[in-house]
Specification:
Layout (H helix, E strand, L loop, with lengths): L1 E8 L8 E4 L4 E5 L6 H11 L29 E9 L11 E9 L4 E5 L2 E3 L1 H9 L10 E2 L3 H7 L2 H12 L2 H114 L4 H33 L3 H22 L1 H4 L8 H68 L10 E4 L4 E3 L4 H8 L6 E3 L2 H13 L6 E3 L17 E2 L4 E3 L8 H12 L2 E3 L4 H10 L4 E3 L5 E2 L4 E2 L4 H206 L3 H6 L11 H15 L6 H62 L4 E6 L10 E6 L13 H18 L4 E5 L7 H14 L4 E5 L3 H5 L3 E6 L7 E5 L1 H9 L28
Parallel strand pairs: 3-22, 3-23, 8-21, 11-12, 15-16, 21-22
Antiparallel strand pairs: 1-2, 1-4, 4-5, 5-6, 6-7, 9-11, 10-14, 13-15, 16-17, 17-18, 19-20, 23-24
Length: 1051
């Protein structure tokens, strides 16, 4: 969060609209006296809610409106818009930019707007409180406030700390609670008086209510008895009506049954008559026609079978072809025998395939030569195998030595890792509640990044992670009791990770290569991610050796640079080489992998040595075998030559005999071919006739099948028609008898229906008489008792004295009412109303008293919160004040104290300072520069203890000399890393420290004008004795989201 721009229109000396664009860092506003540069500070304070005119260096609030000059008329309103960058979501709003606008008209009306929407000052203050900007505006140090810090009362100095610590919101809550408490006390007094008055009114009303209650009880009992008697009479009427209804239902059911019976009988008669008509209309000639068709089909079937037998005889005559088959088989057998004879000479002729004696001798000589060459090759392989065996032996010894070296390194690294875990204190903290584990065990690191991560974490990887601050305190106590060293990290209240402003350039951020381990507890995974962001989020791994990281660190002193070897270069400390359990663990893993590789190489070397031994033995056996083979081949040459001559002669004899047999078989094959050709010509004509016969037989077969199926259907239909004719005749006889019986049943049902109709008419007359009597009784019930029949019937029997009937009891109750006389019918309701009001007041009084007790509790809780918050803030401010005072006053001491430490709720803050070599009784005895430094030490101690996103300082260093100014600028350099500073100054060195420089000037008779310059140009201009002129061009001002035009000052 930081201030992005400030737009002034008609505010004090800024008659024309002027916009200042701010950036993170230091912005310095300069200008000659009276040019209006301090009005920029007043504008920021005013738009943030400043109320007192004196806080704005005026007498009345309308002094902030431009009053006019000799050349310009006065304006009617002043308006200031402050745009705040809220991308960090510091302010509790969803927008990335917050625009606060305050407008004051000369008539006195004032308006506030938030992002263009009108709002209240209270809404604005509630929004800014969470960012450390309160009503006192301690972040804005205007002219003269340096002196006010020292001259202020102790309670006023306390207010500065309270605002920075956020105590003001608790005080506002307390004020609201106290106002509610005052209102509650007044309510208690009023309720007590009202309760006393109601108690006085209740006594006479109670006597009247007793008489009215007795009258109501007798009247209610009388009504109960009368209602009961009427109910009994109604019950008698209902019972008679129920009997009549039951008889009506019976007669109606009989009538309906008779009507239904008549309807069913009429339907049955109609069905029987319809069936008779259908049976009479059915044709009678279907049976003779079916019999005739069946006989005709039988004749056609006989003709078809006769034709089939004729065709079958002709087909058998054509199939007599055994001679052709015999000749064909003989032709195939002779052809096969000739093929065997033609193939036989190829195996018997010695001149084509069998070698002669000379070729055999040549082949044996070649075999002998080959055996000699094999012996020479075997001798060479024997020498090579011996050399391989020697090399394998040397390689095996080297692998064994390197394996022993890495085993020793592995054992040393394992000891180092165990010692690192012991140093982390995790063994001593086993069983302590809230301990999560060593951070190194809770994360996983990408391969090759272990040393870089360890260097970026700077020893945090060996720390023990705990749940919260209470667990951290318990763990530290255990470590202290056990005289064990170790570090602890609490997951409670982790700072929000800030995005790094540094560029990785040719390096790479370390954070993406570090993740929370999969087996880490689920409940703390988000906290561990935040912790890792805070530890290594800004670290950059630089490729190369330590010199590359050293060069980057020289260029950027605020960043952290590491290397893959574990070198670390940070803002405050440089280190060469990797340390810590993570690096040792990585080296341990590397050693374990190297041992596995060397073990594998050693096994391979041993196998190669064994293989070389086997190859050497095999080569020696091959050399001896080659010598024996050459001798054996020489002996075989002579024996093979004699055997080959005898085989050649036998082959010539077999070839001659096979040639004679082939000639005889060829002559026989020719004769068989001639006979087969004669039979084939006559056989073709027979085959054609046979095909035609087959087609005819197939057609006749299908025709016979169809005729047979048709005849079977005709026979079945004839049988069905005969049985149906017999059944139809029997059915006609039965239907005729059924019609006679149905007509008799219909006559009897009609007689029963008429009898039921007569009985229902008699019931209607009796019911009409009973209904008249019942209606008269119901009218009396409604007129006398305002009751319906259901209430009378549901009335329970009243409690009657022994031996007294309901009618006698009714007469006795009437006599009691007469004796009681007239009563006040409203007494009972008035008494109940007064009683309810009394109870309500009593309840309200109890609630108000409870509320009073709760408000006292709330006030006590708020006081406790104020005391705790102020105590923590005061402790931090006191510590920072002592450090800053010793920095600003080398050799001096300064401290803060409370006027009454027992009353932390209201006590003030005293300053006790002692510059080096001086004894100061009162702060007023200090010089002007020393007073400024003391006030700055106090203000910056507050700023450091409870930082705010931005600070505005108006000529706070005006009284400082060069040495003290440098100390002030060192403080500015410290705070510029975390906060935005806007300084109004005349000091040249302050201007040189600016990131953005604005100049304010005022032409004669005009209004203030804002120009922006680069710091280098402004310094040169001031050194030359000049100042930015009003005619110099301002930076380009693009329109913003809310219609303003913020300037973009050059860096």
């Amino acid at each position: 969060m930081f201030l992005r721009s400030l737009t002034l229109s008609g505010f004090k000396s800024f008659a024309d609209t002027a916009t200042l664009t701010f950036e993170p860092g230091v912005t310095v506003v300069v200008g000659p006296n009276g040019s209006g540069k301090s009005n920029v500070v007043d504008a920021i304070a005013w738009v943030l809610g400043a109320q007192g005119p004196r806080a704005l260096r005026g007498q009345r609030m309308d002094d902030v409106v431009f009053a006019g000059t000799d050349r310009r008329t006065a304006l009617g309103r002043a308006q200031v818009t402050l745009i705040i960058d809220n991308e960090s979501q510091t302010l509790p709003t969803q927008t990335a930019e917050v625009a606060i606008t305050r407008t004051l008209f000369r008539s006195g009306e004032s308006e506030y707007a938030l992002n263009g929407t009108p709002c209240r000052l209270l809404d604005l203050q509630e929004l800014l409180n969470d960012a450390g900007v309160g009503r006192q505006q301690h972040i804005i140090v205007a002219q003269g406030q340096i002196e006010q810090v020292l001259a202020a009362r102790p309670e006023e100095r306390r207010a500065l700390i309270e605002e920075a610590a956020g105590v003001l919101k608790f005080r506002r809550r307390k004020e609201r609670a106290e106002r509610r408490l005052e209102s509650t006390e007044a309510n208690v007094t009023r309720l007590v008086d009202l309760q006393r008055e109601l108690r006085r009114q209740l006594r006479p009303l109670e006597r009247q209510a007793t008489a009215a209650r007795r009258h109501q009880e007798i009247s209610a009992e009388l009504v109960e008895v009368q209602l009961y008697n009427a109910g009994r009479e109604l019950a008698a009427h209902q019972e008679a009506q129920s009997t009549s209804d039951a008889r009506r239902v019976t007669f109606a059911a009989r009538q309906e049954a008779a009507a239904a019976s008549i309807s069913d009988i009429d339907g049955a008669i109609d069905d029987a008559q319809s069936q008779l008509a259908q049976l009479s209309a059915e044709p009678a000639d279907r049976l003779p026609r079916a019999v005739s068709l069946s006989e005709r089909a039988r004749g056609l079937i006989g003709q078809t079978y006769e034709r089939m037998r004729s065709v079958e005889r002709e087909r058998n005559a054509l199939l007599d072809s055994d001679v052709v088959v015999t000749l064909t088989d003989e032709h195939a057998r002779v052809s096969a025998e000739l093929a065997e004879i033609d193939a036989a000479p190829a195996q018997a002729v010695p001149s084509k395939e069998q070698p002669d004696e000379a070729s055999l001798e040549t082949g044996d000589d070649a075999a002998v030569n080959a055996a000699e060459e094999a012996r020479a090759g075997a001798e060479a392989r024997l020498a090579a195998a011996a050399a391989t065996l020697s090399h394998a032996d040397e390689h095996q010894r080297g692998a064994a030595e390197e394996l022993q070296h890495w085993i020793g390194r592995f054992e040393a690294l394992a000891s180092a890792v165990a010692a690192a875990r012991t140093d982390s204190g995790i063994a001593a903290l086993d069983g302590v509640a809230g301990v999560v584990g060593v951070l190194d065990d809770l994360v996983t690191v990408d391969g090759g990044w272990e040393a870089a991560v360890e260097a970026a974490a700077d020893g945090a990887m060996s720390a023990v992670v705990v749940r919260d601050d209470s667990a951290a305190a318990a763990a530290l106590a255990v470590l202290a009791d056990g005289d064990t060293s170790g570090s602890v990290i609490s997951l409670d209240k982790l700072p929000a990770a800030r995005e790094s402003s540094h560029q990785a350039a040719d390096g790479e951020f370390v954070r993406p290569h570090l993740q929370v381990a999969a087996d880490a507890p689920e409940w703390c995974r988000n906290e561990l991610e935040t912790l890792l962001d805070a530890i290594v989020g800004a670290a950059i791994c630089v490729p190369g050796d330590w010199s590359s990281a050293y060069d980057r660190a020289q260029a950027d002193r605020d960043a952290v640079f590491v290397t893959a070897n574990g070198d670390r270069f940070g803002p405050r400390r440089w280190r060469i080489g990797s340390t810590g359990p993570a690096a040792a663990t990585a080296a341990l893993d590397h050693a374990r992998g190297r041992i596995d590789e060397l073990t594998h190489d050693h096994r391979q070397a041993a196998a190669a040595w064994a293989s070389a031994q086997q190859a050497h033995g095999a080569a020696l056996d091959a050399f001896q075998q080659a010598q024996r083979t050459a001798e054996t081949l020489r002996r075989r040459i002579a024996t093979a030559a004699a055997r080959q001559s005898a085989q050649v002669q036998a082959a010539h004899d077999r070839a001659a005999a096979q040639q004679q047999r082939r000639s005889a078989l060829a002559e026989r094959l020719g004769a068989i071919s001639q006979r087969l050709a004669g039979h084939e010509s006559s056989h073709a004509a027979a085959v054609a006739r046979l095909d035609r016969a087959e087609v005819i037989v197939s057609g006749l077969d299908r025709l016979a099948l169809l005729l047979s199926q048709h005849r079977q259907r005709l026979d079945a239909e004839a049988r069905h028609l005969r049985s149906r004719h017999e059944a139809r005749t029997e059915l006609i006889r039965q239907l005729t008898e059924r019609l006679d019986a149905l007509r008799h049943e219909r006559d009897a049902a009609a007689s029963r229906q008429e009898q039921s109709r007569t009985e229902l008419a008699a019931l209607d007359v009796a019911e009409a008489e009973r209904r008249t009597k019942r209606d008269a009784l119901i009218s009396a019930l409604r007129a006398d008792f305002d009751a319906d029949p259901a209430m009378a019937l549901a009335a329970s029997p009243p409690r009657l004295p022994d031996g007294v009937t309901a009618s006698a009891h009714e007469r006795a109750l009437r006599a009691d009412l007469n004796r009681l006389g007239p009563v006040n019918p409203l007494a009972l309701s008035e008494y109940e109303e007064a009683s309810e009001r009394f109870e309500f007041v009593a309840t309200q009084l109890a609630d108000v008293r409870n509320s009073r007790r709760e408000l006292h509790k709330v006030i006590r809780a708020i006081d406790a919160e104020i005391i705790a918050t102020f105590a923590d803030a005061f402790e931090d401010v006191a510590r920072n004040f002592a450090q800053l005072f010793s920095t600003l006053f080398p050799g001096g001491t300064g401290r803060l104290s409370l006027t009454d430490p027992e009353e932390l709720l209201t006590c003030g803050v005293e300053l006790d300072v002692r510059p080096a070599g001086k004894r100061i009784g009162r702060l007023s005895l200090l010089s002007g520069g020393e007073r400024s430094l003391v006030a700055l030490a106090y203000l910056f101690a507050v700023f450091r203890s409870r930082p705010s996103p931005f600070y505005v300082l108006d000529e706070v260093e005006a009284a400082l000399d060069d040495v003290n100014l440098q100390r002030f600028l060192d403080l500015v350099a410290e705070f510029r890393r975390e906060s935005q500073l806007i300084i109004v100054s005349h000091q040249r060195r302050t201007m040189e420290s600016a990131d953005v420089l604005y100049g304010v000037s005022m032409p004669p008779g005009g209004s203030s004008v804002v120009v922006s310059e680069r710091p280098s140009q402004a310094a040169a201009l001031i050194a030359a004795g000049g100042s930015p002129g009003p005619d110099e061009p301002m930076a380009e001002q693009p329109p913003s989201e809310y219609g303003r035009e913020p300037a973009t000052a050059p860096r």
